[in-house]
Write a structure and sequence with these properties.
Elements: H1 2-14, H2 16-19, H3 25-51, H4 55-77, H5 96-106, H6 109-135
Length: 142
């Protein structure tokens, strides 16, 4: 699931300009962001409920849930219209540090602030998400 999410994450935003008019991009980005947050929320709650199940059934249910969600993601991807590369001759750079440096160097000053704000948001959000389960002790009826 992590691999699927890592590959789908950037692509879900990159494909929008190829299928939508310029005036629709902001709204579409909002809807994609909403879908991402809802998926994180439902996945976290669902995972917490599955982990709290009876130990004999827990692993079967977690494995089944992961396979079902992955299969649904694969099925949904079959309905995405083709989107050929806009710059097919551009080299594929694997070094994330070099790419990060290029983005930061070429981005306008206000955009850099937004990049850092989004990074901090995800850092703090992931930190809180890892601690949510500790707020509710086992057997508290959650």
């Amino acid at each position: 699931m992590g691999t699927q999410s890592a590959m789908f994450g950037p692509l879900k935003y990159a494909i929008l300009p190829q299928h939508l008019a310029q005036d629709d991009l902001v709204r579409a980005n909002g809807w994609v962001g909403l879908g991402t947050f809802l998926a994180i929320l439902f996945g976290s709650v669902g995972g917490g409920l599955l982990v709290g199940m009876d130990e004999n059934l827990r692993y079967l249910m977690i494995g089944g849930a992961v396979v079902v969600v992955a299969a649904l993601g694969l099925l949904a991807s079959l309905f995405i219209p083709p989107a050929p590369a806009t710059q097919p001759d551009q080299p594929w750079i694997i070094n994330p540090l070099r790419q990060t440096w290029r983005v930061m160097r070429d981005a306008p000053r206000p955009v850099i602030s937004v990049i850092f704000a989004i990074g901090w948001f995800w850092l703090i959000g992931s930190g809180y998400l890892t601690k949510v389960s500790q707020f509710y002790p086992r057997g508290a009826g959650w």
